[in-house]
Amino acid sequence: SRTSNPFLTIPYLMGPQGEKARFLATVDNGAMINAIDTAAYQRIARRLSPLSPSIRTLRMADGSLVPSTGVWTGTLVWGPIEILTTFEVFPSGGSWRMLIGKPLLEQVRAVHDYSLDTITL
Predict the structure, then answer these.
(1) Does residue 96 contact residue 38 with C-beta atoms inside 8 Å?
(2) How confident is the model at residue 108 (pLDDT cuts 50, 70, 90)?
């Protein structure tokens, strides 16, 4: 039997002056939001547009509630796709740097082939 692993990819976010901020992203089609870890965002914040306020409180898999740090809106480049999208920014506790969730997967019409472990954009 084969061990299942998270699907990882490296998209990048575009800054206001064309800067590129690469992220190691976990693709999670069960996540109902796109998300960036607060600490990861803070490390590259100077290269990206600032966050907008968010009133969201996010429920984690363990049931805990975590307030959003803010919302990043901008262009994400992932393979052949360049798209305007949004990410909630909140602390992941080091679990991940970026989550590509169902909203972005729907937006780019991604198709995940689980037997080959590939995503077609």
Answers:
(1) no
(2) very high
